[in-house]
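Issue 218. Parser rejects a valid record. Input:
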Amino acid sequence: MGQISSIIILVVLFGLMYFFMIRPQKKQQQKHRETLQTMKKGDQVVTIGGLHGTVDSIDRDQKLVSLDCDGVYLRFNLGAIAKVDRPVPASDEAPAAKPAPTKATTEPAAAPAENEQPTDK
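Output the parser choked on:
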């Protein structure tokens, strides 16, 4: 009976380890793969080495990406892309105006005293 309970405890521990460690990591890897698949020319990217650049071209057959880093063109493996930031399209409409306050409920702040000297203690 003691061996069976030990085996059950081990199985439960491996199950918990899977759900708390391995499963979230697989989800994160899948999300990263999807991000790389949808990456296109003009996207801002950051490499695993911390280099920031703009995607100039993508060769999905050879799994290479060419980055424009302020006029310097560099080629990287797709696996070297750590983060993709898509540019936010400029909208034609103006930002929504904030509604004006209807009634002031606070009193104006008191003016500072002119002759008061700061005290250092």
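Fixed in the parser; the record now loads. The longest strand covers residues 52-59.
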